[in-house]
Amino acid sequence: MANCGYVTAAAAQGRGIARLMLEDSLARARQRGFRAMQFNFVVSSNERALKTWQAYGFEVVGRLPMAFEHPRLGFIDALVLYRNL
Q: Which helix (H) or strand (E) holds 70?
């Protein structure tokens, strides 16, 4: 099981950098013989990230209630995403 997590700087958002990191991670995981990949902590309010990961076949398989303290929203859930390789 390959495990990933990314944080993109605010100034870099909307440039496709996370998508490129994801594509690279998927390729490296396959090259190394991993059979699946997961993201352990995707903030539930991060709709852009969720849309990207789901476009690449990731599914939400878990929810961590109130795991992240968002500066505007207070405590919100984090999600666990998974996909087979």
A: strand 59-70
What gap in Å lies between CA 38 and CA 43, rounded to an integer?
14
Token reading at 7: 């944080």
Q: Which tens digit of pLDDT belongs to each residue from 41-57? A: 999 999 999 999 999 99
Element (H, E) at 27: helix 17-31
Q: Provide the phi-psi class of 29: left if phi over 0, else alpha when psi is between -120 and 50, else beta.
A: alpha
pLDDT tens by residue, 6-21: 888 888 888 888 899 9
- Max Cα distance, the chain (Å): 41
The count of other CB atoms within 10 Å of the CB of residue 17 is 13
* Statement: the pTM of the whole predicted model exceeds 0.90: no
- Asked if 37 and 82 touch (Cβ cutoff 8 Å), the reply is yes
Structural tokens at position 62: 């878990």
